[in-house]
Structures
1.
Amino acid sequence: MIPTVREVLGLPLVKAGRPEVIGGRGGLDRTVRWVHISESSDPAGLLKGGELVLTTGLPLLGEPAKVAAYLRVLADHGAVGLVVELGTHVKAVPERLGEAADAAGLPVAVLARPIRFVEVTQQVHELIVADRYEEVEFARTAHEVFTSLNIARASMTDIVTRASQILGAPLVLEDLNRHVLAFCAAGEPAARLLDAWAERSRRTGSAPDSASAPDAGWSAVGVGLGPERWARLVLPERADDPARAMMVLERAAQSLQLHRMIQQERDALVGHAHGGLLDDLRAGRITDDAEALARAAALGLSAGAQYVPLVVRSPRHLQGDAIGKSASDRALLAAVRRSITATGHTAIVSLAREGTVAALFSCAKPDRALATCVENLRRQRMHPGTADSWVAGTAPAAPSLVRAAHGLTEADHVAEVGLGLGELRRLLRSTDVRLRGLLTLLKDDHRVQAFVERELGLLLEHDARAQVPLLPLLRTHLDGGGTKARTAAVTGLSRPTLYSRLRTLERILGVSLESPESRTSLHVALMALDTRKAEA
């Protein structure tokens, strides 16, 4: 360990000179980076900072003002102390030397007996070199440890645990929301370490990537590169050696980032292979079930009594820019994988396109497996724009993997329709979407668009100009089966007002709302209009 001024004065070799500190006691705990013997009255060009200057007193000859100026020069150029040997040039402590030392903030000690300065220099330098060697050895050991972890593809928990062992202190890896991803309690009860963790962590810094929290005595480093920072590695106590602690935290953070990059690359390769198989199955390039099962087994799908198609979709308009959409897609893909794995089943899972994840998984009881999978997915942490808006669609399970793969198209369609439903339902089948599903399939057909315009165009033009739009009233009236009493109860309109507005609707639309056929036609047009709005 690098010695302080106080520790140098306590060395037996120095104590033999009977040192007495006469001023500047507040700086005795400064570290000594070098020992310099000097008799120059102007040592500024010889100092780089951190030196303990040894002198026989020649620079202290002269008026007190000259001595004070000499001490100020030493302090201004980073010297940490001055040791004066009496007897050679000065017989006694110069006048007001202690006051000058206090004014300069520089520790000054006088030796009543002569000592060998060269031996002091050698001994202190050996201590400094030993400390430097210890630091280098510590850094080398840490480098080897984390390099080995990188080569072994260690998990996040393994990396955090090894860093904790090196420091002999607890460590916590937290995400940007202060949720704990991994930790090592280092002998401390985990309950105490993690108690109210998010609140305690937020009090140590204003941002998740804050580098340190000196007020709380914590040390922390961000994990991730620039704007892609995704976590923080925290040492939740005051470090005995802050420099060593930060070095270990930074090396551990690098290993954690490398682990994440490798995992993402592996996931990308696996996702590409899964996507290739699903594309071949959906496109009909694989028709033999034995071939399909062999390829799926090579990718980790276990054989099962039934194979279930599942498509999970999220609305794209909630995901922001391209970076946000990409992050959302990765999070959705990972969430679907975890949700199926948590059911105990295996699957082929791939990102079919933006905002859409397709999966085929094997099971014995499809209904129970689907319900469990969707519940698992609901509990997953996802991208903020996806968490509350995703919809899963499915199709009938099949004992054949090829037949089940053909059901992905139906499941995709059902999920797409589900995004346009007014009431969010997490899992939908074709029996749940019915006519709305057909209209969703035909939403881009110009004949359907022309039908909507013929049925509702004049009303839409009226509402664009009117202060009181009538389309909501029409929707409510049709949803209630054309019953005026029910419409009045839902809207809260008085009977005369309701009748007046219904007559206005009939006049604008040019049809009678008493006619069941007219109401059906208008209802279908509204549903078709809704599918276009959902897409937008």
2.
Amino acid sequence: MRKDSRIFRVLFALMLMFASAGISSAALDTKGTDFWIAFPGNLSGADYYQALFITSDVNTNGNVSIPGLGFSQPFSVVANTVTTVTFPQLVDVQTNDAITNLGIHVTSDQEVTVYGLNRRQATTDAYLSLPVDILGTDYYVLGYMNVNIVNANQFLVLGTVNNTTVTITTTATVGGRIAGVPYNIVLNQGETYLLRDPNSMPSDLSGTKIVSDQPVGVFGGHQCANIPAGYVACDHVVEMIPPNTTLGKNFLTVPLATRLNGDVWRILASTNTTTVTINGIPQAPINAGQYIETVLTTSSIITSDKPVLVSQYSPSSSFDGVTSDPFMMLIPPFEQFLASYTVTTPASGFAINYINVVAPNTVVGTLTLDGVPVPVANFSPIGASGYSGAQLPITGGTHNLAATLPFGCFVYGFDSFDSYGYPGGQALSQVAIVSSLFLTPRTDINPINTQHCVDALVKDQNNNPLPGIRVDFERRGANAGAGFAFTNNNGIATYCYVGTIAGKDTIIGSTGSLRDTVFKTWQGALPVELTSFSANVSGRDVVLNWKTSAELNNAGFDIERSAEGIWTKAGFVDGAGTTNEPVNYSFTDRNLASGTYGYRLKQIDLNGNYAYHNLAGMVEVGIPEKFELAQNYPNPFNPETRIDFALPVNGRVRLTVFDNAGKEITGVLNTQMTAGYHSVVFNAARLSSGIYYYRLEVSGEGAAFSKTMKMMLVK
């Protein structure tokens, strides 16, 4: 920062759009219709003011209000443009260790993206606002330490709900607030609390823990930071901190263009005994609220075994003597990347502007900037991560980036002792608490040129489904490709594609470091078109009906039934051969035990080719209304026969076989059984031919039943 730096206004916009088919629900992100935001104090001086920049991808209306100041102003946004709202007085928070009423409320009819600009000649910063729907109750502060030039690192907490109790545990003693000793404040909606640290180097409020009983907004930063210690000049630094549930474990970095000696990085732990690995080298474990600070000069891979918060810092200008100055830019984990961005540089004040991109290798060469594919030569691989990075010089103004898979986008610029930087956007789903990922169906077979869908179930450590989690899908094999989807409210992300080439696909689903694999077989198109397939239950029988619109060389259908995931053949129905007329088919699967079943048809043509057609949903054979004992089948028999019976209640079941003289020969069953349809196989290999009798006796739940029937063994 120098006083002769040019005055500028930061006017930029962000639209977060998803460019992939198969998205089951939108992820939580930085767009919203309800925001509570504030401005932690900057250095006072000339041309000092605050403003909001509001953008949307649709036409919408809204309102900006500051209840504590009696300020209210409506606004309108035209799609893909920026609306600026300025304030008639300073609205930044300067009062230390006190509750003020300077919260700013932004509401809109449709989703908008909001940036806050804290402008003062030669020390300006802007931040991306986070909507209320993604705010949390558990945070760690990240900023930068005091270096004995401007000693004023700080954080701000903003209430969104009345009577919110906030517990704060600082990492530095500030006045009567003792480091490591929790203290409580109570905030109402729109109230703000600033704590500024005036202590000498290396005092730092980074790592301060903030816990609340209602969602709050949290800001971290510094009035004017020198980064790192020993270098000049300083700049105002501010970021709105995401809640701990949205932190991740997998990060990819690209150096800032033009810098000669690298960038400063901080990696802050949210959990004790966190091990961070940088380019394959494990660092010493850190506990919750502690951080690693390092300088990285090349594109790097940062991973951790527990969720962390990561920030990239542009150093002060004297760090390498190039045109620059500090900024702080939070880096989202790659599982929070989006598939498209609309961003813009400040309207004035910066001669040097760049966009850093971190993209999957599979979209390198097809990712577009302003509708034009970015040349492959611009990208360099980031280790063995499967991603590549690029530093793209851009002109001033608005720019659009898009790809078929999610990627990272980071916008920044420099001028004489000045700089800015911000992430182009991110999803804000609860990736920090993802514990399991399971894909279904595990295997499946379809004819080519039909659609196949894979469901990915994502749960937390308590086995609860998680909405809004992005799951990436990679297809290897005959129909190679990739895509992604977000989980719905049931924690399921559904990804669909059409296989056009016969063969086998391996489908790999992943979110963060979790992976699961399923398999798909595609068969050549078969000459039978199925127009319907349904099932009805009649007692313990299942009646299947299906219809074809036309057939060519159709030999028939194997009917296959699944129970507990195991498929068995239930029967066969002859096909109609070749016909252009609709054909109706029916098959009854008889004498089933109570339970849940799946069905599929294996259509076989005269050349032996086949394709599967699955029944939508499962079939349930329920509980009988009365006791029954059926005639054994077959009868006569040799040497085995099946005996079916029905129990309307749970009970003790005894099944006994007698000879023609009434003498008990053997006991077949003597056990407790549940209500339902049951079958047992009787083997008479040791008996001689003749007439025998079998008796069923049941007692339980106040009911009793006894019945005897005759059977014939013929050897």
3.
Amino acid sequence: MNKKQLIECVPNFSEGRNPEVLKQITDVIEQVEGVKLLDIDPGKATNRTVVTFVGEPAAVIEAAFQAIRKASEVIDMSKHQGEHPRMGATDVCPLIPISNITMEETAEWAHRLAKRVGDELHLPIYMYESAATRPEWKNLATVRAGEYEALPKKMADAAWQPDYGPAKFNAKAGATAIGARDFLIAYNVNLNTTSVRRANSIAFDVRENGRIKREGGKVNGAILKDEHGEPLREPGMCKSVKAIGWFIEEYGIAQISMNLTDINETPLHKAFEACRQSANNRGIRVTGSELVGLVPLKVMLDTGRYFLKQQRRSVGISEEEIIKIAVKSLGLDELTPFDPQKKIIEYQLEDSSNRPLINMSLQDFANETASESVAPGGGSIAAYVGALGASLGGMVANLSSHRRVWDHRWEEFSEWAEEGQRLKEALLRLVDEDTQAFNRIIDAVRMPKSTEEEKSERAAAMEAATLYATEVPYQTMVLAMESFELMKEMATKGNPNSASDAGVGALCARAAIRGAFLNVRINAKDLKDQARAAEIVKKAANIAKQAEEKEAEIIASVESHL
């Protein structure tokens, strides 16, 4: 079965002050079936709004076209003013590959969109980044040079003929840049100054393009040039970063406005630290920052872990706590509240219906288990008990990393705490997956069986569902077995005051394995492929035997502390 292709579209509209105008644009996006609107991020000072939506390519292209059409109707560029560079009602419209689609394929969709906009809306369209038709137009800044005000002259210049649409100045809608690019983070760093000149100095220190070299290093010195007459440049601190300084009247501060075009080369925290270093050298303080649009989860987790390591603290804590550290460290909530559920792209795309049990309270989960419903059953409970065991192991690791006399061992225990978090999350997923496996069997049982073809299809579905229901608890056994190593290390080398917690963790791991083993056996007996069933049961029995030995070993170690 082909996996679903997903692309993200992040159009920037030249309107950030009139919510009624913005609603007309976002309404047409939401009317397109198969598209999910993720974020609307207006800026009053920039008079610009970044909209983010995602879906399969054809649906995204349709939504983008409708949004560009509506923007051309409701935004008048001849009256537009704002801090951000711009040249059209829909200023830029990038497409970003999210899953199961290449950049080349995404660029093809960008060209389809551009051709339709040019042909049907009669707007001049320039292609940029990975969809650019000329090397010099890959850079958006080059395409947008001179902004809206320069368009009449550009339209008359043969060198500036658009890729699609008429080479004719559209006073109301301007021109649009459509492209395909990697995930870009739009990020602003707040300063305790109102000086745009000083903000720009910091931006020049940070951005890859740096600043132009001048004679004697003086601001008013003559520009130094190479043998081709091109200005020489002093590179900035951060690769793949574009930056300018500006003043935001709405907040009464200057900011460094950045685009991080390759977060593997320059992650968010590195850009922030570079700004902070440059600002400190100039007697200026960084007071916070803001993310424009959405951000990948990995970026926030990498940032949180970076700042935890700076503090010599364990990074083996929950995802939510790591993100909280990232938000506080970057000051992302200085100007407006930062809601991870709305700002992190994976959280926006997450389908909570796949985790109904884990999203319950402890009491609701217990009540549901105790009800007359056959699910959740022993398999889900085994996985949950295993998750609790791994959690206890992680807890002892974290307590050990913070023990005053073991400051020199914080990294050792941090790594074990991370392992506990990994196992906990994997086992928690199996809590719901075990119930889903049972539901597959029920679905197969209910399939029609009137004809021979239907009987054959039903039998195949039953076999596949039963195999799945056997493999899920087996995975619980494998993961719970892995957790014994964590518990052993914590019982023997961790904080001695918490040795009993490691012991309880070991008891949980063994209970999870024994419970899951019962589920493996009861489901495996219904498999038609008895050779496969025997293989799984044999491996599971071996794990169950080892679990008894590991548990006894760890409990003996714990007893020595008591």
